[in-house]
Design a protein that fits this description.
By secondary structure, the chain is α/β, with parallel strands linked by helices. The chain has 3 domains: about 5-30; about 35-80 and about 310-360, Immunoglobulin-like, CATH 2.60.40.1940; about 85-305, Rossmann fold. The protein has helices at about 5-30, 35-40, 105-120, 130-140, 170-175, 205-210, 230-235, 250-255, 290-305, and strands spanning about 45-50, 55-65, 70-75, 85-90, 125-130, 145-150, 155, 175-180, 190, 230, 245-250, 260, 260-265, 265-270, 270-275, 280-285, 315-320, 325-330, 340-345, 355-360. It has a 7-stranded mixed beta sheet with strand order 5-4-6-8-16-15-12.
Length: about 350
């Protein structure tokens, strides 16, 4: 046996092994973005809180691993309704027509929304449902509390809403939350395998049956956008701004609802309209991009914004200086109701995943 050949082979194995280890380490470093690496050490907690009928103050303990990191913090008073983290059902059925949404939205909204929620450790499932499955969810009114149905197609399938059927209204009344995007909700009722036609239009009568009178303006004004950010939109960094479906801000707030979007005159781009024990979360216009609207919807759902009673305060923090922990004392501009206060904190960077939520009770 040539000992020199054996030694050379051992040396070559060692070099190759070292190279492979180096490549593996490099791949891990490259695949972990700076935002993700920084978030591994980002942490927010409520150190203490003083909530009285006269004033509210929270003391936040913040740890960060990057010398320059942004953090958005929001707080809002809550009503007396129990706060629920809900199972999410996303209507996705390519056999049925869509209206006033980009071609990729009906199928893409599930992928993007489930990704946004899952990566932020949303604790309950996100499920895609066909028209038949959607009907089963809506018929089960006993399970409506604690469930959200997302319908971002601009058209309701005829098996759940038509001139002769309405499974949506009783389900919402029983406690479900229906999320809508596209044209005016209730205007269209689509059938499997058939394009939209005049016979499928319930028109304003369909919209009024679901949402009530004087909630949505008709006809739709495509391309109209809000240019004034509501307090909630600012606090949660909501970007969706289309108001073409004409959701009247005054009517929504008169019914105890919330302006969560951008306003253009008397219209808002995102509104929550309570109805019975549940409500409608309406994106009031066309949906050109499922990715950005999914980020907005994920923040609304995770924050529990629909349980707010109208007021909201927010702060943008730049965590500067050496990576360390710090304390922020925040005097809120409202007193605490019996339902308490919801506090949320998140990194507003586009690729960021960090999200914190805490309900603080008196």
């Amino acid at each position: 046996m040539d000992l020199r050949s054996g030694a050379q082979w051992t040396w070559l194995e060692t070099v190759i092994g070292a190279l492979l280890v180096g490549l593996a380490v490099a791949e891990i470093v490259v695949s972990s973005s700076p935002v993700q690496r920084a978030e591994q050490s980002l942490s927010v907690d409520v150190k203490s809180a003083s909530l009285t009928d006269q004033a509210s103050t929270v003391h936040l303990a913040i740890s960060h691993g990057s010398p320059h990191q942004d953090l958005d913090v929001a707080a809002f008073p809550l009503g007396d309704r129990p706060i629920r983290e809900s199972s999410v059902y996303v209507y996705d059925d390519s056999r049925f027509p869509a209206a006033d949404v980009a071609p990729t939205v009906p199928q893409g909204i599930f992928d993007h929304l489930s990704g946004e929620l899952t990566t932020r450790q949303y604790s309950l499932p996100v499920v895609a449902v066909s028209a038949e499955d959607l009907a089963k969810v809506l018929i089960d009114t006993a399970s409506a509390p604690g469930r959200v149905v997302v319908m971002m197609t601009g058209v309701l399938p005829a098996n759940v809403f038509s001139k002769d059927a309405d499974l949506v209204s009783p389900w919402v009344q029983a406690g479900g939350v229906a999320v809508w995007g596209g044209g005016a909700m209730g205007f269209w009722s689509g059938r499997s395998g058939r394009p939209l036609s005049a016979g499928d239009a319930l028109g304003e009568a369909g919209t009024e049956r679901l949402l009530g009178s004087n909630v949505v303006q008709s006809p739709t004004t495509f391309g109209r956008e809000g240019d004034v950010q509501s307090a909630f939109a600012s606090a949660l960094n909501i970007t969706y701004s289309f108001t073409g479906a004409g959701v009247f801000l005054g009517s929504v707030t008169a019914h105890g609802g919330l302006d969560l979007g951008w306003d253009s005159g008397e219209f808002t781009s995102v509104a929550y309209l309570p109805r019975g024990s549940g409500g409608f979360l309406i994106f009031g216009g066309e949906i050109p991009d499922e990715a950005s609207v999914s980020v907005d919807l994920a923040r609304i759902l995770m924050s529990g914004a629909i349980y707010g009673i109208g007021k909201v305060a927010s702060k943008h923090l730049t965590l500067a200086g050496p990576a360390s922990g710090e304390t922020v004392d925040w005097a809120l501009p409202f007193s605490a109701p019996s339902g308490g206060i919801m506090l949320v904190a998140f990194d507003p960077s586009p690729d960021a995943l960090y999200f914190f939520k805490r309900q603080i009770k008196p």
